[in-house]
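Q&A log
Question type: sequence-to-structure
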Amino acid sequence: MKVTWGKKAATGVLAGLLMTSGLSLATAAPAAAAGAKYTCKATPSLSLGRPVSTSSCKKSSKGKAVKKHRAVLVCDVVRGRGAEHTIPWTVFGDWKKPGEKSSVKCGFSSFLRSVKVETKK
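Response status: OK
Response body:
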């Protein structure tokens, strides 16, 4: 079987082209994912008299790297009959990806104390 130098050269060029395109794809994906930064915020509201907090994250050049976020709500729960007193109660939302919203509610007979967002890198 006789192989000419033209077929060998074409095969070598094709292999080199596929290898360099594969290497550029392998190095480009982590760099793009590592560069994503987000700013997160918590928004308080009321639903049927119950305090609600919703957290969301948007891409921003001044933010920080975020893989997951969740809403955190601190409520003052009213306890007791006659001599009522309040107890601070912290409620956590589900962990969500930056494009999704996380929300959490306090129980009835509760007052809003604070809202915040927790993030994971």
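Response note: Residues 38-120 form one domain.
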